[in-house]
Design brief:
Layout: E1 4-6, E2 13-15, H1 17-50, E3 55-57, E4 62-64, H2 76-82, H3 84-90
Helix pairs in contact: 2-3
């Protein structure tokens, strides 16, 4: 199985059909499982709220209810627009490793 196909002129890139099919199928499965997981999790959260249960602890898993709260965030976009000089002085750059983004259409 050849993962990547490159034309002789070096400008056209492709991917092996079997590899493409595998990624599409995996993405579909992951999406379906994520939807099912999120629904199950939301149902459990609602039941815990309804019955005022804060924690369920078993040998294999622990569910802990986290109450809603307000989160304080910093609006860096507005700060950058209004105080560019200070923003530049305090902004910190960090290396980010390479990754692969896959989008199933």
């Amino acid at each position: 199985m050849e993962l990547i196909k490159i034309e002789e002129n070096g400008l056209t890139y492709g991917i092996d059909e079997e590899t493409e099919n595998m990624f599409v199928e995996y993405e579909k499965r992951i999406k379906l499982l994520k939807e099912q997981y999120d629904k199950f999790k939301q149902d459990l959260l609602e039941k815990m709220e309804e019955k005022n249960v804060l924690k369920i602890d078993t040998d294999r898993i622990t569910f802990t209810y986290i109450a809603p709260t307000d989160r304080e965030t910093f609006d860096s976009k507005t700060f950058k627009e209004e105080h560019q000089d200070l923003y530049d002085e305090y902004v910190k750059m960090s290396p980010v490793k390479s990754s692969l983004r896959i989008k199933v259409k």
